[in-house]
Amino acid sequence: MAEVRFDTVRKLFGRDVVAVDDVELDVADGEFVVLLGPSGCGKTTLLRCLAGLERVDGGRVLIGGRDVTHLPPRARRIAMVFQSYAVFPHLKVGDNIAFGLRMQKEEDSEVKRRVGQAAELLRIDHLLDRYPSQLSGGQRQRVAVARAIATRADVLLMDEPLSNLDALLRLEARAELKRLIFELGVTTIYVTHDQVEAMSMGDRIAVMNDGRLVQVDNPLTVYDNPADTFVGGFIGSPPMNFVAAEVDGGNGTPVVRMSGGTFALPVVDVSHLKGRRLVLGIRAENIEVLKEPADDLVRASVLVLEPLGSHNLLTVRTGADTLKVSARADLFPATDSDVWLRIEPARIRWMDRESRQAIPS
Fold first, then answer.
1. In terms of DSSP bridges, do strands 261-264 and 204-209 run parallel, antiparallel, or are they unpaired?
2. Contact between residue 26 and residue 20 where contact means Cβ atoms under 8 Å apart
3. CATH superfamily ID and name for 4-234
4. What are the angstrom distances between the C-alpha of 45 and each of 13, 95, 120, 295?
5. pTM as predicted
6. Distance (Å, whole) CA 318 – CA 300
7. What is the spatial distance between Cα 308 and Cα 314, in angstroms, rounded to a whole number?
8. d(CA 198, CA 215)
9. What tens digit of pLDDT does each residue of 133-191 get?
10. Other CB atoms closer than 10 Å to residue 310's CB: what's the count?
11. Confidence band (pLDDT; 50, 70, 90) for 250?
12. Domain spanning 241-352: which CATH class is it, in words?
């Protein structure tokens, strides 16, 4: 078993910089968890604490139920793929893949067998006699992954392994890497700042900010029900829209009031929302754009139109608020023209304006 546990792990740089702030996280055996967050949030530091490349200042790190907090990296049975690939330029591909096995003092026959298996799995078996300088970026990335999996470590760690690839190659490599990890069934922790990678690859996403875990859940839940405005604003392209709003229960149908106008909510229980200072969160795809006014629509002025092929992305202003909305591909409103927005009530996510935390429905 190769489950991983971070037990109130804390890491300081100097006296004042808290890079990892009492992180609690359990990763099941064979699970693929993505650590996601902006630069400087502590995700790579947390990964390095697991690998033994950083000394932990508090808490424990466990792999397979074994406390490895104070063990050196070689004793933790982990393999790591770095952002820079870290392939040895003076060694051929086959020798690069074999490096970890030779450090483990495996028999030559076993080294040859595992190198062949890893190279075939990564589809680089025809490149074994080449040097890294003769490879493309995508091929070097595959060599680094092959070297990691050849050791058959208990846990596979990846620190932004696709960030040096161009957009099209990254798309292809992402799918290949997901297929590979599924086939291997190895416990994997993957660090990235790219929310598309996180959404498309991981079994769960652990969102970090300022050294803390903000939300840990499956990708669709993190996207659809963010724990706070940070998560909603970080996940998604474009990010979730947030506007100040109030809910008036009245004596009839509840009404949402925002700076650009009002619209009715369906008959739902809004008792937990009345009288509170609220932030209304809504995704661009959950706002319908219409060219004519009607009841329960919010008037907006078009600032920018961005044709994206499958749809048009509009930046609009309504009252004091600026929103990103997704419009049909055949709808091309002129700049400074008026449109009307229908905000889908069931897709609204309510946040407290002071704490910025989600309000349970």
1. unpaired
2. no
3. P-loop containing nucleotide triphosphate hydrolases (3.40.50.300)
4. 10, 29, 32, 52
5. 0.89
6. 4
7. 10
8. 13
9. 999 888 888 898 889 888 888 999 999 888 877 788 788 888 888 888 888 889 999 99
10. 8
11. low
12. mainly beta
